[in-house]
Amino acid sequence: MHQPLRRRSPSFAELFTPKIVSVLREGYGARELRADAIAGATVAMVALPLSMAIAKASGTTPDRGLFTAIVGGLLISLLGGSRFQIGGPAGAFIVVVAASIERQGFDGFLLSTLIAGVLLAVMGFMRLGAYIKYIPHPVTVGFTSGIAVIIFASQLTDLFGLTLPGREPAAFIPKLEAIAAASGTVTPAAVVIAAGSIGLILALRRLRPHWPGFLLAIAFASLLAALLARLGHPVATIGSKFGGIPSTLPLPSLPPLSLEKISAAFPDALTFAVLGGIESLLSAVVADGMTGRRHRSSCELVAQGFANMGSALFGGICATGTIARTATNVRAGAHGPIAGVIHALVLLALMLVAAPLAAFIPLAALAAVLAVVSWNMAERAEFAAILRTSRGDSAVLLATFFLTVFRDLTEAIAVGVVMGAILFMHRMAELVEVETHTRLIDADEADTASPRGDYEGPGKDPDVLVYRIAGPLFFGAASEVAAVLDRIGQTPRVFVLDMSRVPFADATAAKSLASFAKKAGRSGARVFAAGAPPVVREVLIEHGAGEPLVTYVDTVADATRPPTADEPAEAA
């Protein structure tokens, strides 16, 4: 029999060498630098308004988003396993970051981000990056669409210029109730700015898709806000709400540490780590699909870990790979990770030079940017396609979506993954087939002595019964196979189980096979397993389905042929 090909395990250097090192080894000249400089500057124009808007929507000040994009984005590009990944604050984190800040305060949130960075680095060094991709697609679509709904709801206050009596609640239903209660405080000037910003972004996306639509909308809105203020219709701005943006990065510092604080921060840290890993690897996969390249998932997780640790030390929020900015980077012609480095440096230069101008940005314009982002995040086509094609996938999708919106993102992902795993096991169990020419008795029918039909196999021996098992023989399918074997209405001299089409088996399947073999043995029958692949045979023997209960042979013919003169009859 042919032995299965074994893949060589990659070395540590192959797994964890940053892509920037690989790119520089290939040869890096002026042409590559020019391409990366153009792409990096282009992405920075997109990242500047987005970073501030995401930080503001997360319940903190806009400058924290810039710190994240600069420090986190720089470390992700320097250490990451993707050529084109652009790191920074992401819309997917808005919900969990806002909830964490509300529960723990900002220092507690920073500690959670720091611990999340450590967890991500550990996940990377343990090579767990390859497993995150097994999260079912309906789960990803469900929580992404749920987050999009929450983000849009959180922007209604600034889109309409509402005045809430207290802090806006983080939970979805209380948030809507508070917004409805404040519906009488609409600011017409804010509505005009928000509508104009959204209209300009959409128009530029259609007419001039390569222009930095978000940045131009922010500039337009700032000028419009200044004009409306002169006419006696002021609106809330970054300056009036937060006092502006600092023109330098803060000095790195650790948040307050204690065993009690670490224990309280750990649940949020785990959520940040899982969501960050999912988001960053999804972004890397998107970049691979656009370029034909392959990222190093474990290396990417390590980079995400250090990026979150660095962001927390500089007072930023959670950092991750961002799909929209990464796609922009690819479309702008980036050659490698140096484009991401330049993106971070351009953001730093803009903050050093133009920070005073940020004070004039109206909050309605930032809300307009995030309203467009949430619309793009919603994955409406994917959502509808899943609902149309599969009831099982639809159940996973809807459970994840509604739990994300009305309960908690961590709970939504956990429930969705468990439901997806159960659905997968059910589908795998349905793939297992047991083929035979013998009629099976019903579960409540007494054993019968009626003659069975001949098996159309080697020798056509009426005392040899052959069953062909096809498909994965694991715990989800073992009970089905055992039920079929138990429904055999008579006992021949030899049972042959053709397992040549069984790709793998587990301990539960081995126990079911051993139980059947014992039952057959008590009736004087022998059980042969023919053609089982080496991996399947090892598992079955290891868990009790070995000699003398089951005899393993290479082919069905080996089990059914008559004994030769050199071997005892009972060995046939």
TrEMBL record:
Compartments, as annotated in UniProt: Membrane
Transmembrane spans: 66-86, 106-126, 138-156, 176-202, 214-232, 269-289, 344-373
Pfam families listed in its UniProt record: STAS, Sulfate_transp
GO CC term, one of those recorded: membrane
Record-linked InterPro entries: SLC26A/SulP_dom, SLC26A/SulP_fam, STAS_dom, STAS_dom_sf
Keywords: Membrane, Transmembrane, Transmembrane helix
All copies of domain STAS, residue ranges: 462-563
Annotated membrane topology: Multi-pass membrane protein
Protein known as: Sodium-independent anion transporter
Lineage: Bacteria, Pseudomonadati, Pseudomonadota, Alphaproteobacteria, Hyphomicrobiales
